[in-house]
Design brief:
Mean pLDDT: 87
Number of helices: 20
Order of helices and strands: HHEEEEEHHHEEEEEHHHHHHHHHHHHHHH
Largest sheet: 5 strands, antiparallel
Distance between the termini: 89 Å
Shape: elongated
Strand content: 5-15%
Helix content: 40-55%
Radius of gyration: 31 Å
Structural class: alpha+beta
Strand order of the largest sheet: 1-2-3-4-5
Low-confidence stretches: 350-355
Length: 579
């Protein structure tokens, strides 16, 4: 009896030639399409902002001012140099001034965009009130700041100089990024040029020719309150000059304030902050003329602070080391020294940092990366612990969740590198890891909303199935929402994108009802349908999944059709707006 000989084992299927290269090419095209949609959103937004700027640079109305100061009957013309408008009573008396924080505040992005605020000051330049004129930040976060009964009131009563110094303030719980961005915009706006009724004009170059014979112009130093560069006609920087106004305007000598010009000599191979003082110039004063003249005639007083740097002057403590006054003008000379120290301190002072929790989010991101790149990736216990940490710290404590409102806002207004560093790092890892490591790290390990659904899976009895038809229909929801986001951004529709996702519900104090409904329905559904919201409702997850490189990256699919449609919608919207 013959024994049948088994056939040889089938050889494993060979990979298609060039499939890897084709996969990389297609994946690069996918990333390029997503990037181009974001670029078109940004270009469209910038064009809209430029158009609005041409139409009007002033957004506030008299009604906005009167809501803060009811006694105001009218206002004067806009001062182009300072960006302020005088506020007038019915009899014509000036009651103060008003200003808006934009465009200086446009550099400070909250959760998804900058804000423009109205500030109203009384005649002594004390703040009477603040209101939000316009904001491109997320609606619910802005409304939380608007309704907070502590945030803006804590600023009322402070002077222009006090606010410009950036004192520590309390942000709004649940809207920290938005409130901090508004605060930084106020500090930035008030740190620039301001109305100065005492010494309104810049000093002429001729005043400095005794010290710098070739000086021809004074150029304000950017990001500075009262610092100027002294330049020759060839553009050479000869030194710097610090005005003590406005920092010293409240320091009275015998009978009034004095403006002192502190001259610094440029030194080769030294940073400007290390340039030494070479002279104090006193040319304008409301003090007694005879006493002021004594200071100029004294041979030693103008050289009193020579060879000191700006930081060294700011560090002078007159209680520990009192300055000798000029005989016959003691009060005037001491006031001048106090004014120079105050101006140096104001120049070096930066806004106090607002407490943040960025390191917590960054630490969790690093922990997730370590978990998926080591043997811990196979530990169910380690994964469960990470999910609990993500829920507690990234979700509940920091509310750092990716969303379409965030992506569109950043595309339009820029990335908040400093104010939301933790969220920026989280976003960077979430968008690069799918290509680099072929894994959707954010959805699987770092999304608090996804973590809750993962923990709830398989814990409440028998699971439900949608069936093929239900699965096919519900799977259309995320791509349709992505296309809706593109339309909202390109057509500038009055629709808040936070209303299509549940992530604002993690900051429940500010969440609107659409967000809360989506959150509750999605989590309840996840009790019976594993990862129900992630699979059938999340446009952000769908976007991250689309840019993930995988074994079938060399094949075209329905997601590519959606991406191409989004690009065409963005392009049509951009070109249509050209007319």
């Amino acid at each position: 009896m013959s024994v049948p000989i088994p056939p040889p084992p089938a050889s494993p299927p060979q990979p298609r030639r060039h499939s890897v290269l084709r996969g990389w090419i297609l994946h690069t095209c996918r990333l390029a399409m997503v990037a181009m949609v974001l670029v078109l959103i940004r270009w469209q937004h910038q064009r809209a902002m430029a158009r609005a700027a041409l139409q009007s640079t002033w957004m506030a109305t008299l009604d906005d001012v009167q809501a803060i100061a009811p006694e105001v009957a009218d206002w004067g013309d806009l001062d182009a140099a300072t960006g302020t408008r005088p506020l007038l009573a019915a009899n014509g008396d000036q009651l103060g001034l008003a200003l808006q924080t934009a465009p200086q505040s446009n550099a400070f992005i909250g959760f998804s965009g900058p804000s423009n605020l109205l500030l109203v000051f009384d005649p002594r330049q004390r703040l009477l009130g603040v209101s939000i004129l316009d904001s491109r930040d997320t609606r619910d976060h802005v409304e939380q700041v608007r309704l907070d009964d502590r945030f803006f009131p804590q600023l009322v009563g402070q002077t222009w100089d006090q606010l410009a110094a950036g004192p520590t303030i309390d942000g709004v719980s649940g809207a920290t990024l938005t409130s901090v961005a508004m605060w930084r915009g106020i500090v930035k706006r008030l740190g620039g040029k301001r109305p100065n009724p005492l010494f309104p004009d810049d000093p002429p170059a001729a005043w400095f020719r005794e010290i710098f014979p070739t000086v021809t112009e004074l150029v304000p130093v950017s990001e500075s309150i009262s610092l100027y560069e002294l330049r020759s006609d060839t553009g050479e920087v000869l030194g710097r000059m610090l005005r003590t106004t406005p920092a010293a305007d409240a320091i009275i000598g015998y009978q009034g304030p004095t403006e002192t010009l502190v001259c610094f000599q440029a030194v080769a191979d030294h940073l400007p902050v290390d340039w030494p003082i070479v002279r104090l110039l006193i040319v304008r004063s409301y003090d007694n003329t005879e006493y002021v003249n004594y200071l100029g005639e004294d041979a030693s007083f103008p050289k009193l602070l020579n060879d000191r740097t700006l930081a060294e002057v700011a560090a002078i403590d007159l209680e520990q080391t009192p300055a000798d006054g000029v005989s016959g003008a003691t009060m005037t000379s001491q006031a001048v020294v106090q004014g120079v120290i105050a101006a140096a301190q104001a120049e070096l002072r930066s806004p106090a940092p607002v407490t943040n929790h960025h390191p917590l989010t960054i630490a969790v991101v690093l922990a997730a990366i370590m978990q998926v790149t080591t043997a811990l990736q196979h530990s169910r216990q380690a994964r469960t612990r990470l999910m609990l940490v993500v829920i507690a710290l990234v979700g509940y404590w920091n509310c750092d969740l990716l969303s379409q409102a965030m992506f569109v806002g950043w595309a339009q207004s820029g990335v908040p590198w400093t104010s939301a560093l933790g969220l920026v790092v989280l976003t960077g890892v979430a968008t690069t890891w799918p290509t680099v490591a072929r894994q959707n790290l954010y959805c699987e390990r770092l999304c608090p909303h996804g973590a809750v659904q993962q923990l709830a899976a398989h814990r409440f009895g028998k699971r439900w199935s949608l069936g093929p038809r239900g699965h096919a229909i519900c799977s259309l929801i995320p791509p349709l929402l992505l296309l809706w986001c593109v339309l909202v951004a390109m057509l500038r529709l009055g629709f808040s994108l936070v209303d299509i996702e549940p992530f604002d519900a993690w900051a429940w104090q500010i969440a609107g009802w659409p967000t809360l409904v989506i959150a509750v329905v999605g989590l309840v559904a996840a009790l019976k349908i594993p990862l129900a919201y992630c699979r059938y409702g999340c446009p952000t997850g769908a976007l991250l999944q689309y840019i993930r490189r995988h074994g079938r990256s060399d094949l075209l699919g329905c997601a590519d059709l959606v991406a191409l449609t989004a690009l065409l919608l963005a392009l049509i919207g951009y070109l249509a707006d050209l007319g």
